[in-house]
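ugh ok so i messed up the first submission bc i forgot one of the chains. this is the corrected input, ALL of the components this time, i swear. 223 residues overall. if the numbers dont match what u have on ur side tell me asap before i send this to the collaborators (the ones from the other lab, u know who)
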Amino acid sequence: GEDVEQSLFLSVREGDSSVINCTYTDSSSTYLYWYKQEPGAGLQLLTYIFSNMDMKQDQRLTVLLNKKDKHLSLRIADTQTGDSAIYFCAVHHTGGFKTIFGAGTRLFVKA
Amino acid sequence: EAQVTQNPRYLITVTGKKLTVTCSQNMNHEYMSWYRQDPGLGLRQIYYSMNVEVTDKGDVPEGYKVSRKEKRNFPLILESPSPNQTSLYFCASSSSSNSPLHFGNGTRLTVT
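and heres the new structure output, hopefully the right one now
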């Protein structure tokens, strides 16, 4: 079955860029999502990309997709302390009934 | 406000005592799903429902039951909870199985 992997921790200084990486195994993955989880809360959709795209930019967020390497990344520009959270990569296959999540990357932002 | 509501937020119980975690959404979503979140494992799907009276197993269904008698509600039932079901549980819904998920705020369950 599909496997989604992320590194567990990332620490950056306030104002720097953060890059969170994700790899997946199934090349038929069609929808690729980034969710954010703040302490004590559920997951909130941050952004997503379709597999026929290479890049998507939304304000401070840039998603890059390398289909050949099955690699997805999320770049957060000018990282703020409010960006401290757990970020989940998730993949979904068209017509399937499951969204498969990575283990989540905990982002620490140092002031 | 569009939301997914889970109750309770926190629950401590003993082994074998049946419990139900409720989930309700007000967005008229057809698709609903339950996940559990464990450290280092991310979210794993327990059960999902495509519509009323249509449910199916996810990746970790053992020890859980669900029902979908109404479109808005999707309760998670633990008939005989065990300590290995101690976890953080999330209910989620979406307008279709291909759409992004909307999550509830989670239920932290401890089984002693």
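quick check: Chain B has a mean pLDDT of 95. that seems consistent at least. The interface with chain A takes residues 4, 31, 33, 35, 40-45, 48, 50, 56, 58-59, 90, 92, 97-98, 100-106 of chain B (CB under 8 Å).
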